[in-house]
Design brief:
By secondary structure, the chain is of the alpha/beta class. The protein has helices at residues 17-29, 49-55, 81-86, 97-102, 107-119, 132-136, 140-152, 179-196, 199-204, 218-222, 240-246, 248-252; strands at residues 5-10, 38-43, 60-64, 91-94, 123-128, 161-165, 207-210, 229-232. 41% of the residues lie in helices and 16% in strands. Bound molecules: 1,3-dihydroxyacetonephosphate. Keywords: Cytoplasm, Gluconeogenesis, Glycolysis, Isomerase.
Length: 254
């Protein structure tokens, strides 16, 4: 089964209403390949979700950047999966390294969140990735396999999951993984899925790369056989996000 190229824009904790309107109008005017070729999802902060949802072109979709681990209730400051569904938000990013590292979200907590979000009908961009220290210690595969295992242990259906490999050392640093480095980990992750989940899930699950992706480096990365798209931070706030979406053409012509 062909894996449709996927480009996500993670706006993180950025933007004012005015800036959000500007980004949306740039996106709405962008000429990009059709929905058959590329799936585009942008993820504004919670407070801007309704604004973006109602003003964004219909071929682009919206994701929240997080949601609560179970049914909503007395959890001050949290936003539940049910609320996202109620607002018609189809996607959620879970387990971003900024949440894992700064807010101390464990592998198990992330696995529980992914599982709960899926039960509510959300589609999930599940993030994994090693720190520089872990890479230098040679434990990259061990780390990402553990992170993936904690998710795999809690879910049985991968149809609505996109796995985002985001090496922490590449996030916001301008130090992008080389195409070979990204391909190596994506290939190993697919092998892990094949051995530990199923050959079907390994073949059909999109594994996207994130970490200092720009218009300048996206094509070479997109050309790697196991790179099925991107999760873009900083560059997703800029007009060059359109060029990154266009890198889907590299796959189409492969
Ligand atoms: O964390 C990221 C996307 O989730 C990547 O961020 P940058 O593209 O800014 O490095």
């Amino acid at each position: 089964m062909a894996r449709k190229f996927f480009v996500g824009g993670n706006w993180k904790c950025n933007g004012t209403q005015e800036e959000v309107k500007k980004i949306v109008s740039t996106l709405n005017a962008g000429e990009v390949p059709s929905e058959d070729v590329v799936e585009v999802v942008v993820s504004p902060p919670f407070v801007f979700l309704p604004l973006v949802k109602t003003s964004l072109r219909p071929d682009f979709h919206v994701a929240a950047q997080n949601c609560w681990v179970k049914k909503g209730g007395a959890f001050t400051g949290e936003v539940s999966a049910e609320m996202l569904v109620n607002l018609g938000i189809p996607w959620v990013i879970i387990g971003h390294s900024e949440r894992r590292l700064i807010l101390k979200e464990s592998n198990e907590f992330v696995g529980d969140k992914v599982a709960y979000a899926l039960t509510q009908g959300l589609k999930v961009i599940a993030c994994i990735g090693e720190t520089l220290e872990q890479r230098e210690a040679g434990s990259t595969m061990e780390v990402v396999a553990e992170q993936t295992k904690a998710i795999a242990a809690k879910i049985s259906n991968w149809t609505d999951v996109v796995l985002a490999y985001e090496p922490v050392w590449a996030i916001g640093t301008g130090k992008v993984a080389t195409p070979a480095q990204a391909q190596e980990v994506h290939f190993e992750l697919r092998k892990w899925l094949q051995a530990n989940v199923s050959p079907e899930v390994a073949a059909s699950t999109r594994i996207i790369y994130g970490g200092s992706v720009t218009a300048a480096n996206c094509k070479e990365l997109a050309a790697q056989p196991d790179v099925d798209g991107f999760l873009v931070g900083g560059a997703s706030l800029k007009p060059e996000f359109i060029d990154i979406i266009k890198s889907a053409e590299v796959k189409k012509n492969a």
